[in-house]
Amino acid sequence: MPHFIIDCSKNILKSYSLQEIIEQVYNSAVSTKLFHKNDIKVRVNVFEDFITGERKEDFIHVFSNIMEGRTDDQKQNLSRTIVKDLSSMLPSVPNIGTNVRDFEKANYFNKNMLDPNYQFSMP
Q1: Per residue in 34-61, pLDDT tens?
Q2: What's the CATH fold of domain 3-114?
Q3: 111 by DSSP, 3-state: which?
Q4: Position 119 confidence tier, pLDDT thresholds 50, 70, 90
């Protein structure tokens, strides 16, 4: 936790590698100090077929899935940081966005939580 899922157009990969994009989103998340570094997970879905309005323009969108408990200001800062950093890295990409979705702690479970000594913590 948290999970950052990046959707992007394939054409972006002509200028930057998947690893560079993954690392940028990871570093953006780290810079907010909202998460433990080891907890951040980032992955990418690349799209060849898509529509962006009436044209086919390159895009990158980050779906930020985080545990509930952060303030709206913290979530807005996370969104702003990701978009700002990706915009600096990818200035020719016209469509860059993100959104934050909260996981409810009561409904979240992962393998580590099977351990009876596991304790959930947030920074």
Answers
A1: 999 999 999 999 999 999 989 899 999 9
A2: Macrophage Migration Inhibitory Factor (3.30.429)
A3: helix
A4: confident
